[in-house]
Amino acid sequence: MLVANDMRPDPWLVPHLDALRASVLAGFRFLHLPRFDDVLVLQGLRIAHGAMDMFRASSADDALAARFRVEDLESSSPQAVWHRYGPVAEAVRALLELPPHGSPGAPSLARSRSLWLPGDDLLRNGGLG
Is the pLDDT higher at 110 or at 129? Predict the structure, then answer.
């Protein structure tokens, strides 16, 4: 929520907005999934080093961040090698702090699929056309 007289965000929102700004600087691209009168979901994607990092935020307190191996994205059910649920400030920051895919300390083992994936909504609703 913004304060009308000076357009500064409420203090509780600042860490979440800072995490989103950091994702922009880290090369994420965005898709806004609209609701009739507002943004319903913000989705950020970045493909680098053989991995797709993504996050989806429907509110400051409801975000999912995940990493997938690019080579697995052709699968009918790709599995994340890492994921985190929580507030935007925590989930997005944790994703940004991951080492590059394939480097020492980076997650590499796929986990069972219990995550929303980019495109799931389109597939469920019959695609774009």
Answer: 110
What is the Rg, in whole angstroms, of the alpha carbon atoms belonging to the chain?
16
Bridge partner list, 52: 47, 68
pTM of the predicted structure, to 2 decimals? 0.78
Residue that is written with structure tokens 């980076």 in the block? 106
Nearest to 101 by CA among 72, 73, 69, 74: 69
Q: Give the closest residue to 47 by CA, choosing from 61, 31, 64, 27.
A: 27
Q: Helix %, strand %, coil % for the chain, to 5?
A: 25, 30, 45
> Which pair of structure tokens corresponds to residue 128?
């774009």
The stretches of 43-113 forming alpha helices (DSSP H) are 88-97
